[in-house]
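Task 17 of the worksheet. Students: predict the tertiary structure of the chain below and write it out as structure tokens. Keep your answer in the requested format; marks are given for formatting as well as content.
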Amino acid sequence: MVCLFFGINSAAGSSLDGERNNIILYAKPGASGDCLSWETACDLQSAIAASTNGDQIHASAGTYFPTTSSDRMISFVMKTGVAIYGGFPASGGDWDSRDWETNPTILSGDIGAAGDLCDNSYRVVRGNSVDSTAILDGFTITAGYADGASPADSGAGFYTYLGSPTLTNITFVGNTAQAKGGGIYSYESNPVLTNVVFEDNSAEYGGGLFNSKSYSTLTDVSFSNNSATMHGGGMYALASDPTLTGVEFVGNSAGEHGGGLLHSDCDSIISDVTFSNNTAGRFGGGMSNFSSSPTITNGSFDNNTATTGGAMYNQYGAPTITDITFSNNIATDYGGGIYGEYASPTFDNCTFDNNSSPHGGGIYSYLGTQTLTNVTFSGNTVTGKGGGMYSYESSLVMNDVTFNDNTAGILGGGMANYKLLDSEITYSCFSGNTAVDYGGAMYNVDSCPVLSYLSFSSNSARHGGGMYNYHS
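Model answer:
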């Protein structure tokens, strides 16, 4: 690893008094020196207090606490222009010896009785009113417990208001907020997160990250086993437009909506994303979108579970979903893959494979408009209606769509349509789909879809192996 720092001098043996050039300050747990060398290192709070714009702080491996007192309000506070780097060996070392994985550098809120959350710091780190030159790199942030009066009930690991801090190579683990953002609470801020892990954090809203009126940028970020008693087990975005690239949501849970991610009034840009094994008590095991129109490209939703919308729930808004695979997701009521209500999503080059629910194995659409191009429904199953897809008082625009080997316990093995509005299906194939009673490939009731250039083969049902029409 090679890193060049221009205009930064170690200044070992010099004084911090008077005018000086930008310097490196050195921190070790429990040290009490002048901060100017590894041999005369100070504790981290002293180094931050002594730093000015343009300085760096190098912190050796070990555990640092915001205070030695019992004052739960005290946090590590970032500064504009000050970069704080962890991951140096316990005895100190040069830049090439820095390794935050081998040399864990921990910022802990466990300031009181060890293991007793009730006397921990409300927030371990704060980054208010700083710009992107405030850098925190190479740390584990843990044991924040935000159960105080607002705002000390949010952002147990990290709290930023009107800030744009840069967080790199950070792990947030085991932080708990009574209200919002167990790992991070971001309000009217633009933090940049790169190579960040959120693990085993919890809150009422946004177990890992709560993002409100913020434009966060997340790159190579992982959310795993975080939980929210209400919404957004991994992440909650409210009136925000975050950008997520290379982000994974694995094993997160929410009591209500959005086991992995919840969007409300957001137009996020999301690419190279994975949602796996997330759960929600009600809507959107992987992801919930309320009045939101995210653009989601290149990724997968697999083994997510919810009552409605096993992988994804859409209400209002117009998500754009491209190159995404939905597989093995489960809904106990509607929409094994996706449930949409008053929503107008667009799907391009997507696959719905082996999803299941009572109704709408791949997609369930209610009072919405679905646009599908080059989409495949394969091996989806329902105990009721619409093995591949169920549309209720909705509109469909479908081109080059394949329904293959889907199964319905009652009707519409491939798809079931009820009061389908202005809809057109072209250049599509239905093969090997099965319904126990009606419409092996397609079931229509009170519907008048326009069908052009379709293929029906090897579909089966007690009535209407290919298609069953009632008042249609």
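Marker's comment: The chain has a mean pLDDT of 95. The longest helix spans residues 44-50.
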